[in-house]
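Structure ticket #2291
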Amino acid sequence: MRVWAIIVKFWFDTKRDMFRLFDVFWWPAFNLFVWGLLSTYLTQLSKGSVNFVLLFLAGTIFWSFFDRASRDISRSMVEELWSRNLPNLFSTPLTLTEYLAGVLTVAFVKLVIGSIFLLVLSKIFYGFEISLLGWPVIGIMAGLMIFGWSVSFFIQSFVLRYGHTVEVFIWAVTVLLQPFSCVFYPLSALPVWAQWVARAFPSMYLFEQMRAIISGTPVRSGDIMISMALNAVYLILSVIFFYRTFRYAKSNGLLTKPY
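Resolution: structure written out below.
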């Protein structure tokens, strides 16, 4: 019931401030139109020899899974800090696990709604059919979502510990990690030093597999296993780090600190 109470709370917050829906639909659609128009133009220049529309739209839609997963959870925590509502929430029998379960549920529903909206727009305006890529895309989407959650837990931990000075990373992390995730180009396009950095992120392996599916080349099972292993390690470490940081913040009065 307490998990459901958190879900209902976010529902009432959304009803009270409909501009929250603006973030669910507007920015993903804006990115889709920008990359869609660019990819259409590049496909025309190449006279159809390369399907840039498929490459760019697939990259944009898949990257939105990481973007939304990492941002929505962190924003939920930050908004509670801004309103100084965290002490009120945790002065009740509500546990941190129940709170996270509610937040993750809301974030997942928003992610699904936003993704369906993007897929419908891409079908209407560009004739993009993600179903043509087959069932492996579900694993790519899930992997990017889990990686986004892991990054979000790390960011929330730093926000709890250091305050508003590190809140910028909630929005900046997508920009910082995108070049190393190889969303729109292969790993070989990066400098050698950047390739070594990119290998530390599961998102890079997932986008490499996305391009393999699009080009019709065999999917490398080894890369999939590496991405799964990295996701598992990062998720476990991020959750442990978040719980430890939350206990530290609670015992040292950081939850009531003005932000």
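Closing remark: Residues 2-256 form one domain.
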